Amino acid sequence: MGDIINIGLFFSAIRLATPLLLAALGGMFSERAGVINIALEGLMLAGAFTAAAVTWYAGSPWVGLLSAIVAGAAIAGIHAVACIRYKADQVVSGTAINILLTGVPALLSGAFFLSSGSTPQIPKENLIAWTPIFIAFALVPLTYYALYYTPFGLRLRAVGENPEAADAAGVSVRAMRYTGVLLSGALAGIGGAYLSIGQSSLFTRNMSAGRGFIALAALIFGKWRPVQTMLACLLFGFTEAVAIQLQGVPIGGAEIPNQFIQIIPYVLTIVVLAGFIGTSRAPRALGIPYQKEK
Asked: Among residues 211, 232, 212, which one has the least CA distance to residue 275?
């Protein structure tokens, strides 16, 4: 076990926590505004495919990263319109986006690259390894400051807690909710871009592998607060890093099948949701459409 717990494991945990943290912070803006964003998985897939495809054609990871932000925000915009303007069920809308983005990238990949399984390999010089990590962890104090020490944060939290009172005070509930959802899409898009042009060098089908749902669990575990959410993401990242290190390593003289090791992060997600979803107080207006009284 001493060979498993080392400094490399902690760096690996930070890298694995990065896409979770970006998606979770994005989800925080949306849910603090009162809109459930279960679509984080689909938003990450949109960002991952767009970043890989654009980077391949443009030859620039920065153009790919910017495109991922735009793609994530655009898909989030669909969720926002459905939930805010048309007052659709927010869970159903998010689920529909997740299902849609399970198939659309594969369809586009087949059209552009003649392969529905993956995009072409991106040259090493066109990858961005550390930039999304710096962005993710720099966003934690920035998000904390924005939420608790700026008029924007006060309005966003007010809309998620008591939209009627916020509206009476002159705050546009609709505008704040749109802003929160679009920010969630942009940040989840960066998280997806990191998967395809940071951790990896291509997009593969469903490469987010449930990370959007794990990010949502980290958000709940962190009680919709930036620092606690970061710590939750690091916990999930550390668990995934340990699971990777344990593969093929005998424990107690017996080798555990890889399938059992690979499910460790997902089991932890279920345990966290089962144990903490009841103790975490969500924003009071979360999931409740707002109808302005005439």
From this structure: 232
CA distance 233 to 19: 9
Instruction: List, for residues 227-246, the tens digit of each pLDDT value.
Output: 999 999 999 999 888 888 77
Share of the chain above pLDDT 70, in %: 91
Phi, psi of 46 (to 5 degrees): -60, -45
pLDDT value for 158:
96
Alpha-carbon span 83 to 275, nearest angstrom: 29
For residues 252 and 266, what is the distance between their CA atoms, to the nearest angstrom? 24
| Per-residue confidence (pLDDT) for residue 279, from 0 to 100 | 63
Length of the chain measured in residues: 294
CA pair distance 38, 90, nearest whole angstrom: 8
For the four alpha carbons of 17, 193, 81 and 137, in that order, the dihedral sign comes to: positive
pLDDT digits (tens, 9 = 90+) for 166-188: 999 999 999 999 999 999 999 99
Residue ranges in the chain modelled with pLDDT below 50: 1
Domain spans in the chain, listed from the N-terminal domain onward: 18-213
Q: Judge whether 30 and 184 are in contact, CB under 8 Å.
A: yes
Rounded Cα gap, residues 7 and 10, in angstroms: 5
pTM: 0.92
Decide if 262 contacts 243 (C-beta within 8 A).
yes
pLDDT at position 277 is: 61
